[in-house]
Design a protein that fits this description.
The protein is of the alpha+beta class. The protein has three domains: 10-136, Beta-Lactamase; 155-306, Beta-Lactamase, CATH 3.30.450.40; 318-466, Reverse transcriptase/Diguanylate cyclase domain (Alpha-Beta Plaits), CATH 3.30.70. Helices cover 41% and strands 25% of the residues. The chain has a six-stranded antiparallel β-sheet, with helices on both faces. The chain has a five-stranded antiparallel β-sheet with strand order 2-1-5-4-3. A five-stranded mixed β-sheet has the order 13-14-12-17-18, with helices on both faces. Helix 5 (136-154) runs antiparallel to helix 6 (160-175), helix 6 packs antiparallel against helix 9 and helix 11 crosses helix 12. The protein is elongated. The protein starts with 9 loop residues before the first helix and ends with a strand. The model is unreliable at 1-6 (pLDDT under 50).
Amino acid sequence: MATKNKTRDPVVSEAFAKGEGSTELLNGLFYQFNEAVIIADSQRCISYANLAAEELFGYPVGGLTGKKARVLYADEKDFHDLGEKRYNSHSAAVPENYRVMYRRLNGDRFLGVTSSAPICSPDGSVSGFIGVIYPARSAEQSLNTMQRMHAITSAVDLDHDQRINALLEVVLEHFNLKIAILSRIDGDDYTVENCRDLGGQLEPKTRFNVNGTYCLHTLSAKCTTGFHYVAESEIRDHPCYQNFQLESYIGTPIRVNNVVYGTVNFSSPDPCEPFNKDDFILMELLADTISYLLFKRISEQELSLRATTDELTGLINRRAVMERLQQVTELSQRNLTSVTVLAVDIDHFKRINDQWGHAAGDAALVSFAQVVSRLGRKTDFCGRVGGEEFLVVMPGADTEAGIRQGNRIRQRLAQSEVLYGTQKIALKVSIGVATLTGDETTESLLARADQALYLAKENGRDQVARLL
């Protein structure tokens, strides 16, 4: 709202001059403002109040119209002093924002920031006044909250998840609400990724149907939405209110790489101060910050995955399988448990490349990886350690279990021929089995598995062998 000494906006002046018939026109201008807009005549009798003003002062729709502006003030002296300084036909007050204590219908007091201007008729006389009001809470706290957010995002000793959790904590405190959530939304599936619940009931990985959350309105609006008193709002019949009795909510979409990731939102079973422009700006800043942190986390995870994954088969690569085997071996020796490894080699792999080409060889490797990935226990893992060489690690398994698993792999491969064009390629493998003994090193364990593999090849291939 412009802060001129006098406003000669023809639309506002015309609407004001028309009296009651101007409500529709004024609603078109101010009804969806986040700030409270109040228009009074020259005697300071309220002729118009938008939805935000009625919510801010706790009045029903139309409840302020016709009342003297003094009902808005916590102290009648402020009403008279401002009348002498600003709200009169000869005021020469310099345009500026000022703060004053206001009073709601229920008697609650709050500090408000006001910007005002006289409304002038075409002849230049003052016919009324317009004021734009919002609570000073956000104006005073937002800068401090933003500074705290910046300190969190700059902290080198925090990882991405710790930063996100700290940001949720700070903004939850700013709004004085009870629940903070970063959600991941996929279709109708709403998953809590990070959260802070002062009631101690909500935990990460909790899942809801998005249609049962207030975030449905945020996603539909594609921008920040807020409801400070749901019971008296247009969403009072929403399932979220019926099921959880959350009276206040503010949320905004989170986008990563221009795709909706989820939402960041805050809520409480208690009503709160009406949300204003500063609150919405803070939410947008928070959403941008979290979006960047998520982008960084996802990028780092992708880089880490590429560094440890064989690009062709999707199995872990040699470096990763050796690191994990070393960890499993050390854990096994501390806990006196067994570890069995299977050294696997695709038989006559060179013939496949020579007869059908390297693309057929690649298809064979992918087919093998798919078969092995579907077999075994969740604790088992397989990695590609060479061209057609693989290593299967079975923590807690003995030699007999390793032999049984090797034969399952052979049998499953025989049942699932590789389709390459019109060709059907049968895969056979030789497998060497070795189990960790005593304080044996990882290197000696692998050496024994390789020796067993060579034994399987020498005995005709397509079999599982172990050293006696």
